[in-house]
Amino acid sequence: MMVLMAREETRTLTSTTARTPGTSAVHSPSGGAPPRTWRTRLLVVGIVLAAVNLRPAITSAGALLEEVRDGLGMSGTVAGLLTSVPPLCFAVFGVTAPRLARRFGAGAVVCAGMAAIGTGLLIRPYVGGTAAFLATTALALMGIAVSNVLMPVIVKRWFPDRVGSMTGLYSMALALGTATAAAVTVPVTDALGGDWRSGLAVWAGLAAAAVLPWLAFARERGTTPAGRPPAPDGQEPTHDVPAPAEAPALRITRSRTAWALAVFFGLQATAAYITMGWMAQIYRDAGVPAGTAGLLLAATMVMGVPLAFVIPRLAARLPHQGPIVVALGVSGLAGYAGLYFAPAAGAWLWAVLLGIANCAFPLALTMVGMRARTSGGVAQLSAFAQSTGYLISIPGPLLVGVLYQHSGGWGLPLALMAGLMIPQTVIGVLAGRNRTVEDEATPA
Fold it and tell me: Would you identify the CATH topology of the domain 2-10+34-224+250-440?
């Protein structure tokens, strides 16, 4: 898949340069020599490896939540706090990503993010105590947060006419990493002698591998394409084009579309992190064995592998993404109803339906790329929508933990999850309208 994408971009690069001097499908980020084919391929590999690492820190802990709770002496409320840490970190650290990218370059920030993920995952199981576990988890999530925000920016910058395809590719890789961590964490832990600490730490190796391709892009600065247009591999461009001026910052909070996208992002993140943090426990409390519960969570996550590639491509072809939002919302309502009435009897069906509903995430990322005309606008919109959205999502997983502990069952938490799906669908329809933030937000 990565090779095919690289070949597609190379063909587009050659044909576009031949047809229209001064324009291209793949931009040089440094303003100097054009990117060669190997650099384009390496960037695609880097994007895929980064995406694979954006969720194992969360779903591996979700699969072993009971063991982590017992090992650290966590109450249900504190465990709920653990499931709320990801959106909190994404909100706090994600907003800094555009500023860091302007200063150090997007490639350097993503490279550092992968290193932070690996370091946090390696040391968090062994630090001892709940507070230290949360702090080292936050270190890993800090790396995830900045990479979350910069992925749409990098795609818009390097592949401006392949936003749907590339968003689908890294969303598919993200879903694959999420599902793999959910599926194999318990078996890997068993193979390592049943030590949950080793089962969590093993995921640091995947993050270490993701650092390597980004080292090649760590010196490149800026968030917008500049300089001369690229030419076919091995050739110098024949037309000099002045570097485009940096677009002025937008008053992003004046855009109704930006707010709609932020709220939609927040509500879908609430559902996603409740699912990743608590779904395996819901099945285990219904009498499903731990290993099977992990596989059910993996099935939910793995639905995003094919759909995360298809949905962004479909969304990019539609002027209004509302119909997709509605279809995902209906799937979510059906899945929650099934978990309420027959969690064990229809376990696999509910896992599939909730997996379809979770594809609101790649849809939201695609809409971020479509609701702004420039890479600078995408950077601002991505930071605003994700940071604000993750702030909105913080109370959800924590509230589920509180309701679960005080009610002694999953009836009230599941009613909350289903109830939140309705405003998510309504706001998502508004966010899917065909308009851009540049039309609504005046420059600062």
Answer: Growth Hormone; Chain: A; (1.20.1250)
